[in-house]
Every structure is written in C-alpha cells, then in structure tokens.
UniProtKB/TrEMBL annotation:
The gene is greB. It holds the Pfam family GreA_GreB. This is Transcription elongation factor GreB. PANTHER family: TRANSCRIPTION ELONGATION FACTOR GREA, TRANSCRIPTION ELONGATION FACTOR GREB. Belongs to the GreA/GreB family. GreB subfamily. The keyword DNA-binding applies. Residues 86-158 form the Transcription elongation factor GreA/GreB C-terminal domain. Keywords: DNA-binding, Elongation factor, Protein biosynthesis, Transcription, Transcription regulation. One of its GO terms (biological process) is regulation of DNA-templated transcription elongation. GO terms for molecular function: DNA binding; RNA polymerase binding; translation elongation factor activity. Residues 6-76 form the Transcription elongation factor GreA/GreB N-terminal domain. Necessary for efficient RNA polymerase transcription elongation past template-encoded arresting sites. The arresting sites in DNA have the property of trapping a certain fraction of elongating RNA polymerases that pass through, resulting in locked ternary complexes. Cleavage of the nascent transcript by cleavage factors such as GreA or GreB allows the resumption of elongation from the new 3'terminus. GreB releases sequences of up to 9 nucleotides in length.
Length: 164
C-alpha cells in the first residue's frame, strides 16, 4: 500500500463493510456448498459447476482480502465534523467554474468511494489535490488529460452536523 492515509466517509466505510459481509456470510458459503455438491458428482476435470465454482471462490477470496486490507487501513472522517468550513477539505462539496463559466459540483470523498459520473471525486485525484485548502474566490490550476485548466471556487458546502 501507500503511506498516504486511506480517508473514507462513514457512508463509504459502511458500503465496504456491507460488501464484505455479503460476500463472507452469504455468497461464499453458498458457493462452497455448490462446489462440495459438484465435487461429489465424480470426475472434476470435466465438471463445469466444480471448475467455475473454484474459479469464482478464488475471486471472492481475493476480493475479501482486498476489502479487509482497505477497511483496516481506512481512516473514517465525518465531513459534518469539519471545523474549518471556509476551505476545501475532505468531504466538501465544491462548486467550481472554468474559464468559460461552466460550473461543476464535486464532492471530495475517499478513493474507494469515488464515482466521477456522480460527482464524487477521489481525495487523491489531480483535481481534488488542486482544490485542497482553497477558499471561495480562489483560482486553482489543474493538469488534466485534456490539458491544463483553471478553476475558480464558487461555493463550498459541508453536510450539517448531526443534532442541529
């Protein structure tokens, strides 16, 4: 792994845990049962259920190992608890505008929960690194695959703290 912290929101961590529990408690035991049944049917070399089941079991075990390592390394950070709400930090929802005044709304989340199509950008993505620490009105240059772009921070928002 890297020596960078694996920041993740509470919702992102819950999603990882839910996938882990689904694979560990439901999918894997059902697959082991199928493999056991298929193994009892005789010749394993031509038994599709057995061969596919073993392959799928390796995939599940690999995914369980990856999820386990990611959850162990995770540093859960609740964006609602952010003290400095005037700057862009982890969990911020940021409205940015480019040179042509096209606006985009991005939320800086953990790398494991990033989904660009939904506007969730990984904390270590180039645009997220450029936006870190910026305040409303700041200009930031970002090197993207399409070339260098300059963005202005238009708005910064964080989730409301619980109990308010």
């Amino acid at each position: 792994m890297t020596d960078r912290p694996n920041y993740i929101t509470p919702a992102g961590f819950a999603t990882l845990r839910q996938e882990y529990e689904q694979l560990f408690a439901h999918d894997r035991p059902a697959l082991v049962e199928t493999i056991s049944w298929a193994a009892g049917n005789g010749d394993r070399s031509e038994n599709g259920d057995y061969i596919y089941g073993r392959k799928r079991l390796r995939e599940i075990d690999r995914r369980l190992g990856w999820l386990s390592r990611r959850m162990k390394a995770a540093k859960v950070v609740d964006p609602a608890q952010q003290q400095d709400r005037s700057r862009v930090w982890f969990g911020a929802t940021v409205t940015i505008a480019d040179e042509d005044d096209n606006q985009r709304v991005l939320t800086l989340v953990g790398d494991d929960e990033a989904e660009a199509g939904a506007g969730r950008v990984g904390w270590n993505a180039p645009i997220a690194r450029a936006l870190r620490g910026a305040a409303v009105g700041d200009l930031r240059r970002v090197m993207l695959p399409a070339g260098e772009r300059e963005y202005e921070i238009v708005a910064i928002d964080y989730p409301a703290p619980q109990g308010t």
